[in-house]
Amino acid sequence: MDEEALIPIVMFMMVGIVTITYFYFKARARADKQNTIRLALEKGNELSPEFLQQLGEAEPPKDRDLRRGVIFLALAMGLVLIGFAVPEPEALRGLLAGAALPFSIGVAFLLMYWYGDKKG
Q1: Is the CB of residue 36 less than 8 Å from the CB of residue 66?
Q2: Cα–Cα distance, 20 to 72 (Å, whole number)
């Protein structure tokens, strides 16, 4: 098999492995929290609302959309700069097209930050 054919195969395998690993550890953390609550109840301990809230999911930071928007805009800018660094005009067009998606997502996150609900 040609080595160049292995590159996309390995890339998609890595995306799958990272995704599966993320969901596995997230489910394992949730199971550990449930075991902690179950053990506390079995021992007869009272569970205060503060304790349950502390075990629950952390509240997302208020500026999460701003950070994500800036990251996506930086990714788009990096793709554009790579396009200008490559001497082929076809590569520039392809990278500009590829930069359009992260740019649009970044702008959407920034709009959600500026016009969204500032409570959470």
Answers
A1: no
A2: 23
- The reported pTM is 0.61
- What is the distance in angstroms between the CA of the first residue and the CA of the last residue of the chain? 52
- With beta carbons less than 8 A apart as the criterion, state whether 60 and 120 touch: yes
Give 52's contacts (C-beta < 8 A, 6+ positions apart).
Answer: 37
Question: With bands split at pLDDT 50, 70 and 90, how would you rate the model's confidence at 101?
Answer: very high
Contact (CB, 8 A) for 47 and 37: yes
Burial of 109 (0-12, 13-18, 19+ CB in 10 A): buried
SS3 assignment for the chain: CCHHHHHHHHHHHHHHHHHHHHHHHHHHHHHHHHHHHHHHHHCCCCCCHHHHHHHCCCCCCCCHHHHHHHHHHHHHHHHHHHHHHCCCHHHHHHHHHHHHHHHHHHHHHHHHHHHCCCCC
